[in-house]
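Bench log, entry 3. Co-assembly request; chain sequences pasted below exactly as received.
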Amino acid sequence: MSSNKKNLQEELIRISGVNPRKCMRCGKCSGTCPAYDEMEYHPHQFVYMVETGDIEPLLESESLYKCLICFACVERCPRGVEPAKLVEAVRLAAIRKQGNNRLTANDIPALLDEDMPQQAIVSAFRKYTK
Amino acid sequence: MQRIGVFVCWCGSNIAGTVDVEAVSEALKREPGVVFSTNYQYMCSQAGQDIIKDAIKEHRLTGIVVCSCSPRMHEATFRKTAAAAGLNPYMVEIANIREQCSWVHKEMPIGTEKAIILGKAAVAKVNLNTPLTPGESPVTKRALVIGGGIAGIQTALDIADAGFEVDIVEKKPTIGGKMAQLDKTFPTLDCAACILTPKMVDVAQHEKIRIFSYSEVSEVKGFVGNFDVTIKKNARYVKEDLCTGCGLCTEKCPMKKCANEFNLGMDTRRAIYIPFAQAVPKVATIDPDNCNMLKNGKCGVCAKVCTAGAIDYTQKDEYIEEKYGAIVVATGFNPISMDKFDEFAYNQSKDVITSLEFERLTNAAGPTAGKLLRPSDGKHPETIVFVQCVGSRCDACAEKGKEYCSKICCMYTAKHAMLTRDKYPDTDVYVFYIDVRTPGKNFDEFYRRAVEEYGVHYIKGMVGKVSPEGDKLIVQASDLLADKQLKIEADLVVLAAAIEPDKSARSLATMLTASMDTNDFFTEAHPKLRPVESPTAGVFLSGACQGPKDIPETVSQAGAAAAKVIGLLAKDKLVGNPCVAHSNEMMCNGCSSCERVCPYGAITYEAKEFRMPDRTTLVRRIAVVNPAVCQGCGCCTVVCPSGAMDLKGFANEQIMAEVDAICK
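Structure output for the full assembly:
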């Protein structure tokens, strides 16, 4: 793996806290995903492609923004891999690459919903700032 | 003064790779009492042992220290070597410089320093060692088998055939275990009942075997060769010696709506019942939670119809004390609860069942007389989805599943799928798998036959969600090889639930002081070389209580456990461990602290007369240790406030000398 790829891979693993090596390739994440048909790359592929370092196609893919952040894959993964967190990390990497963030801190309070998990809110902000 | 020899082992490169063995043997040469020190590549080899023997004779050694692997590995070897050269075997000390030193350190200077320190401690101890002679204890030539499934049955038969008496304790009203609930058995597809029930009958008729059914072990005392076991015989409210098993009571009992546990609650039985037609012993049992007579004192129908007069509503639990030389644990397994797997809708739909329930649904003696019908509406299912690894290989959710592979599911699912297609060729059968693991003899061929000859659809992927819609079950799953998400309209979903050890195993392990792993499977003494023995002497393991196993493996292990038991019971005397506690009667103040902490019940108190200097006598209460029962754990020496209790071979003085040597 080239050092560029390796760096990106390590960064994603660091940001997400996900260890893709734990994946046993059962596909339950993709079996459970409600946005499966919308996505070019599916949850299990995110995990696999990060593990093999094949991350560029993910960064370019629309799949990043099709993920509903419902966390069903996180809930049901038997190995605790948490694919949604990895999708989120790739999304973040894409935003960092672009170097802009359309939302300012001041805009946020008005958009908050108390019933939503914080992680989902933060993910949603990132997703819609493309 | 002792004359000590030090022998440092290289263990090939295991030790010598991280420890400078030459430096260790040089350094230990200068320790007090050491008159000879050397090192060798493999001390446990014949040549290595000869070095030790020769040195003992040549240098008139009175004690030796072997710096090598763990004493669990080769202490016995080196004790034998010493004895062969005329040295008391308890004058041998092992300094563990492999597991506790070379294997955990990476740098030579650190490893070497630690090895020298461990060697010094052992030398300091040997300086205070005294020759010990082990006692002997008799062997009760009877065995107890706990659990009456196929594992327990096979072990009991094998032990009894060798001429020893065996008792089986089974907590259910009948022996037979899980195998009695199965329909066919892989890979040859013979019917479980056809091969199991003759064995059950053999057990019942064997003159050397007694069955305590509906009973539990409630207390275990003693030690290898001499266990004292209390068996609790639960009241079944039927006199076993009178009941003929005619079954009339089970037809006349008016309490009809009791869930039938033998069919996993899929049909009902009466409050007085015989679990199944081939039950052994074939004796009725009253379920006290459902019997009107026992609950309210009204009814008594069974007593009226019983021509043998076997019904006894006043029966009480009975406690029986028995002596055994060996105990075999065969407590087996259960499928885990599916309650927490909401995604598979097990609690939402009757048509989502476990594989064991599927066994009952296809069993000729089951609730549907062997016809595969949907539990909800009794219709013939046309599309059946099998889901593998439900709760197995699941390390993210300890409260839901198990991190290990349950081992038997791949094969029984292949069996279910194949038999379904064979009997009902109009059905569509899907199996969702993560990996297909079929490494037994004729196992992979069996699985391939399910695919190639019977047309079972094996799909690599996992089911994500099952949702009941109308009378269908929508199974949403991934097909990883086609890179698709599938939605299958199924009529029946079968979950291959992970298996776990029986709940009774944990309390039994405590009673037996036998160790378990984090999943409550019993631990074997050595995973490769002593697979059917527990580390606790005299306790043996048979079947799935030690780990997931299929029937062929269980039967092999049951036979192996029996062979070990026979080997033990064939002995007339057992050589004991001389490293036992003893109490200094002059120092003992009779406080009972030691008696309270002793896990083996080895300490008793007695009144002893002491002569005083003025010729009067004084009666004092002092502790006495039974050396045959004491296992040398040392708890008593720690709690003894007066310092009267000490352990032979591990005296307080010796341990302090070791600590001093380490801290110097």
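The interface with chain A takes residues 343, 389, 393-397, 401, 434, 460-465, 476-480, 483, 485 of chain B (CB under 8 Å). The two ends of chain B are 21 Å apart (CA to CA).
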